Amino acid sequence: MRAMRVTVTGATGLIGRALVPALRTRGAEITVLTRDPDRARETLDAVAGTAVEAVAWDPLSGPAPSEALGGRDAVLNLAGEPIAQRWSASAKRAIHDSRVVGTRNLVAGLRATGESQTDGRPRTLISSSAIGYYGPHGEEPLDEDTPPGADFLARLCVAWELEASRASELGLRVVLLRTGVVLDADGGALGKMLAVFRLGLGGPVAGGHQYVSWIHVEDLVAMMLTALERESWSGPVNGTAPEPVPNRVLSKTLGRVLDRPAMLPVPALALRLLYGEMAEVVTTGARVVPAKPLVLGYEFRHPELEEALRSALTPA
Question: 178 - beta bridge partners?
Answer without folding.
Answer: 129, 238
